[in-house]
Amino acid sequence: MALFSNPQHAVVVLTFASLLYSRTWEESVNFARERALDTRIYVPEILDASNYLSDNEIADRVSQFSEQVKNAVNILTNKDCLFHAMTRFPGFFSCSGVVFVSQKMGQYVKNIFNILTRDVETIKAKERSGGIDYHLLKDGNICENRFVLGKIILRTLLYRNTAERGSIKAEEDDKMQVTNPPQKSVIKEIPQHSDKNVNEKRILKDNNHVKPNKGSKQVKLLVIQFEINCSTLGG
């Protein structure tokens, strides 16, 4: 809702998410500048990234956006705030019921963004292993929730083309299969001559290292019986 009401520059949103993701201010700004053009699909919520913003402008806008996000939380806890925000969506009022979260939970969510509402240039990165600590997440650790939220935002904005990457991988797999086709069993017919000049055709496979089983013994007996019958007819 904060983005819908107040679209932001791509660098601002990526810096916002990177700071949540436990990066330093310098790391977040550099990362945002490098990847800003990858968010072009999210217009009009994400503004054109071609316009340059100074570090001070980014810092001010990140703090302002953080306040807007905190204010947007009110629509989840307050009926009047929800109805006011939904006036731009006429179809919303035909809904039969709405569900709200508690004021306590709403305040907890707001606290996640407090760190970004002032002095964002001084934020220190927290040392992490890179993975999610699900025990801390379950316990409601605010730093862990902040980290996971930043991770979700970045993945949503930057890694949206999963299907495209999948199709590219499939094409690469197809090429690999053409280059190295799977080995298939080749059936050959080899004439065999008995003492009675009886031609026997046996089917052989390239991979003939299979251990004999009951079925193969039965086949062998049938072949022997076939040879005996042919010998008798020949006599």
Structure characterization notes:
It is a single chain. With 235 residues, this protein is mainly alpha-helical. The protein folds into two domains: 2-164, no CATH class; 188-234. 52% of the residues lie in helices and 7% in strands. The chain contains ten helices and four strands. It has helices at 2-5, 10-20, 25-35, 55-72, 79-85, 103-112, 134-139, 142-158, 162-179, 214-234; strands spanning 8-9, 46-47, 188-193, 199-204. It has a two-stranded parallel ribbon. Strands 3-4 form a two-stranded antiparallel ribbon. A hairpin with a 5-residue loop joins β3 (188-193) and β4. α2 (10-20) packs across α3 (25-35) and α2 (10-20) runs antiparallel to α8. It is globular and about 45 Å long. Mean pLDDT is 75; it is low at 164-212.
Architecture blueprint of SSEs:
Blueprint: H1 2-5, E1 8-9, H2 10-20, H3 25-35, E2 46-47, H4 55-72, H5 79-85, H6 103-112, H7 134-139, H8 142-158, H9 162-179, E3 188-193, E4 199-204, H10 214-234
Parallel strand pairs: 1-2
Antiparallel strand pairs: 3-4
Helix pairs in contact: 2-3, 2-4, 2-8
Poorly predicted sequence stretches spanning 5 or more consecutive residues? 164-212
Mean pLDDT: 75
Helical amount among residues, as a percent range?
A: 40-55%
- What overall form do the CA principal axes indicate? globular
Number of distinct helices: 10
Strand composition percent: 5-15%
Please give the alpha-carbon distance between the first and last residues.
Answer: 97 Å
Kindly give the count of domains: 2
What is the strand arrangement across the widest sheet?
A: 1-2
